[in-house]
Design a protein that fits this description.
Length: about 525
């Protein structure tokens, strides 16, 4: 019970399959069956096999075909030394050709009841029986093993995440096409709008919706809060509806919707990465693999970086490897995905009632979504609860930086509401929000003022989309940095050209002709 309930079950170490020219090698190792039996194996080269019949008493049910009531076809593997002790006809492991192609290697803990001798030198009282355990390396057909695995999954119970491990390897990869500004012909604001739309076509929305639904399907055993109802069942329709609303009435917010989809992709990736390591069962059923351990396909070498559906990897109890905490973190990340979808919100645009423009420190590059500030377009209190797992566990969900930090309930410390007044050493990015839709001159002045007063390391300009300058005030004394640099180069070159004939006339040595020519005062 200690092994089964408190430590874990499956292969602990070793027991790796290595194919050799005329043998199968099983390396030294050990494992624990679901009933808690310790299986220990010494390194051996197995070169021959014979048909194998299960002991009649007790009969091992996992290897019995429920339809026919008979045992699956089994073959016992033998080493050269072990073959000498067996009288039956042995068959070389490579014969017939292709025999191993569809076989799975299993270590079976054979149990035999042996009657003890009643009489000894002292008395002839009934001594009872003794259970003799012997580790047998067996081969089983792939199709039969798949039936055994199917029965095992049914026994895993509601908390059995271990059975979804292989399915988790199949979680799809999703990505959102980027808006490459420099490589996109942009003549007016409609070109910008359409460029965003190309990145958010139906295929992109479908991929996101499918990936989110797949997460629920695989991790449903631990997502009890959703009562068996997939919260992403209508996600594709919901995403398309939100996009259509923005296209019809709020087109200037198309960039916010793009960022929202990008958030969904990042949230999914973080969930996918964290959930990969969740392999645990609370009180696993003893009948899953009570007397055997599957090692893998007979013709495929065991590799650490390739997971096999036919190998029983170790399943820790929630007590070890922080599995209990990891499950709770995965649940929180899933709740965040649900919350982001439900709480995406952009207020109706109103020129008469503009929102404040704010600069919020955040993180970029390979930083997880949890480490970033919460964007402007979420209902803050609903999303903040599950935004960052560590902050949630410490009761500090309202300590996530956000444009809407002043709306937190309860109110956080001042360094959360006004982060620009405090140390920003840990941040490498700034979210600038609230300016979309406002008069460009007003927004530009606010941003320049905030940048200068807080000494922030970024520049900001107003860039007009389109060629119509009718509504754009032009300052003819404005300073164009790129043109200014070219002008200085041309001016300096001209000064050199004018200086050279004078030097020749004055017989100045050539080595001294171009020394200390002022770049800002042409000759």
């Amino acid at each position: 019970l200690t092994r089964n309930k408190l430590i874990g079950i499956g292969i602990v170490c070793g027991l790796e399959i290595n194919n050799r020219p005329a043998s199968i090698n099983i390396s030294k190792g050990c494992g624990v069956t679901s009933k808690g039996y310790l299986v220990v194996w010494e390194d051996a080269d197995l070169t021959q096999y014979i048909p194998y019949t299960l002991p009649a008493n007790p009969l091992y049910k996992p290897f019995i075909n429920e339809g026919t009531g008979k045992q699956y076809n089994l073959w016992r593997l033998l080493s050269d030394e072990g073959a000498n002790a067996v009288e039956a006809d042995k068959i070389p492991i490579l014969k017939p050709d292709g025999f191993l192609r569809d076989k799975i290697v299993v270590l079976f803990l054979e149990a035999n009841e042996i009657d003890l001798k009643n009489c000894d030198t002292q008395n002839c009282n009934e001594k009872g029986r003794q259970m003799q355990l012997i580790v047998r390396p067996l081969l089983i057909g792939r199709a039969d093993v798949e039936e055994i695995i199917s029965k095992q999954k049914k026994l895993s119970g509601e908390d059995g995440l271990s059975n979804s491990y292989i399915e988790r390897l199949g979680l799809k990869e999703i990505a959102l096409r980027r808006f490459d500004v420099s490589a996109t012909p942009l003549l007016n604001s409609f070109d910008i709008y359409n460029a965003y739309l190309k990145c958010m076509d139906d295929a992109a929305l479908e991929n996101i919706a499918d990936a989110y639904s797949q997460c629920y399907t695989i991790f449903q055993p631990i997502l009890n809060d959703y009562g068996g109802n997939n919260p992403f069942k209508t996600l594709q329709v919901d995403l398309k509806t939100k996009l259509e609303t923005i296209k019809k009435s709020l087109p200037i917010y198309i960039q916010y919707y793009y960022d929202f989809l990008d958030d969904l992709v990042k949230a999914y990736q973080e969930f996918k990465d964290k959930s990969f390591d969740v392999i645990t069962e609370c009180c696993p059923d003893e009948d899953q693999f009570p007397m055997h351990l599957m090692l893998g396909e007979a013709t495929v070498d065991t590799q650490d970086y390739i997971r096999s559906p036919f190998r029983q990897y170790f399943i820790s109890s929630p007590l070890f490897n922080h599995q209990a905490d990891l499950i709770n973190e995965v649940k929180t990340l899933f709740d965040r995905m649900v919350g982001m979808v439900k709480n995406f919100f952009i207020p109706q645009f109103n020129l008469r009632q503009t929102v404040p423009i704010r600069i919020t420190p955040s993180k970029w590059s390979n930083a997880a979504l949890s480490a970033r500030s919460i964007p402007y377009y979420y209902n803050i209190n609903n999303v903040a609860r599950s935004w960052n797992w560590l902050k949630k566990t410490k009761g500090k969900s309202n300590f996530n930086l956000s444009y809407n930090a002043d709306k937190y309930l309860p109110a956080p410390a001042d360094n959360i509401v006004n982060p620009l007044l405090y140390s920003m050493e840990q941040y490498d990015f700034y979210r600038i929000e609230g300016h979309v839709g406002q008069d460009f001159s007003t927004a530009l002045n606010v941003l320049l003022s905030a940048r200068n007063s807080n000494r922030l390391p970024f520049d900001v300009i107003a860039l007009k989309a389109g060629s119509d300058a009718a509504n754009t005030p032009v300052k003819y004394n404005c300073h164009f940095e790129d043109l200014e640099a070219q002008f200085k180069l041309i001016r300096t070159e001209l000064a050199c050209k004018m200086h050279e004939p004078l030097c020749i006339a004055a017989k100045v040595p050539s080595a001294l002709r171009f020394i200390n020519i002022p770049s800002d005062k042409p000759f």
